[in-house]
Known about the structure:
Blueprint: H1 2-10, H2 16-70, H3 75-86, E1 91-96, E2 102-105, H4 114-121, E3 131-135, E4 138-149, E5 152-162, H5 164-199, H6 201-211, H7 230-280, H8 287-318, E6 325-329, H9 330-345, E7 349-353, E8 359-363, H10 364-380, E9 388-395, E10 398-404, H11 412-415, H12 438-448, E11 452-458, E12 462-472
Parallel strand pairs: 7-9
Antiparallel strand pairs: 1-2, 1-5, 3-4, 4-5, 6-8, 8-12, 9-10, 10-12, 11-12
Helix pairs in contact: 2-3, 2-5, 7-8, 8-12, 9-10, 10-12
Amino acid sequence: MKIINGFWQKFDIFSLRLRLILGIALVSTVGLSGLAGWTTWKMQKILINSHKADISKIADRLPRDVQLYHEMMSVEISLQKAIKNLSNQDTFLWVKSSDQKIIAKSNNWNTLSPTIAIELMSLTEMSTQPELGQVNQHYFVLCGGNLSVDGQVLGKLFVVKDITNEQLMFMAMVRSLSIASIFVIIIISGIIAIYIQHSLQPLRHLSQMTTVISLSDLGQAELNIKNAPTEVKELTHTFNKMLSRLAQSWEQERQFVSNVSHELRTPLTIVNGYLQSVLRRQNNLNSTQLEALTTASLETERTIRLLQDLLDLARADNGYLHFQKQICDLNELISEVVKMAEKYSQRVIKFETINQVIAAKIDYNRLKQVVINLIDNAVKYSPSDTEIIVKLNLEDTEVIIQVCDQGYGIPLQHQSRIFERFYRVDEARTTTGGCGLGLSIVKTLIESMGGKVSVRSHLGAGSIFTISLPASALPDHI
């Protein structure tokens, strides 16, 4: 199966290389086949026409010779003598009377097999124009007509020339020519394939170079291919211009998000402060005012968190998101987060770990933020009567943190994209009020600490988010 997959990957039926090879091979095949066919037809025509000319000359000369001999001898002797003079090893003549009896024939019939001789002599009609015929796998040029002497019809003349050897040699030559043409087409196709592969090499290099360009490389990325055709150089120049425009657009977008997040966070924090101040004097408010102000305060806090997430992402994109890494006891960190989450979410959250201290070099507050985001995500997207399990394990040299829920699950086609910014699975996230930044923040923070995050999910069976970090030894003084 791997060999077949590798074959199809190497010979993509939609690739430009295969299309060019097939196109040129088809043109070569048609061209060589046409040339071979025309050559065959021309050679056969030359071969057959020369024999037809010989037969026509004999058919035209025989009556004159008989007439000439008849002046000195009887008709029967004259006819036999003329036939004898004009016949040779490959040419056979005979004359039939009106009642289909042979009145004269050449003396070389013993060179033919009896079966062929009998079949030839049994012919009653023959075209006056020479034509090619086949009798028992033997090839003959045949011609006939009425034989007249002194205005008297003696009978029907039959002239046949055996060209079996020439025809068989010609057919063998045609087969050899066909086989040679096939080999030439294969060789030409192979040479063309190598040449096309070499010619398309700059395009493959260009594709490989563009594949490895990431968002962080857009500003410095520049494609350059040496010794490339003019068209590829033009394409490379166009790509460089496009990358430059993308880099400018991306930089403007990041700057805009950073500026907006920074400028909006301060006034919203002030507004939230005033709302909290008013809510602390809620005795002066009626129930409608209290509800409105509480809703406004919650939405303000949610917007502030959103802006903080956007600001963190913008800082990470610009390389300004700083980490204070140190070796920490993860058992203690995750236990603290689980207790806090269980208290505020009023959900059953279990913490499972091995009976061993597990440590890693991380930013304490950032990892705490990651675990809180994942637990909050599990709380939002799982029924309230199901439990959430947080696992901490050590596998070889890696620390494994898992947050497991028994929620709705994530469709397979969405699992590869849920860590993208603002991406939401609508089927499961229509009532949660999320903005699609939580998992993107998780991925950014974990990768910045040298780890990886992944998800495994089944519809109706829940999801498991897994974080892996390099393990470290805990210092003795901790």
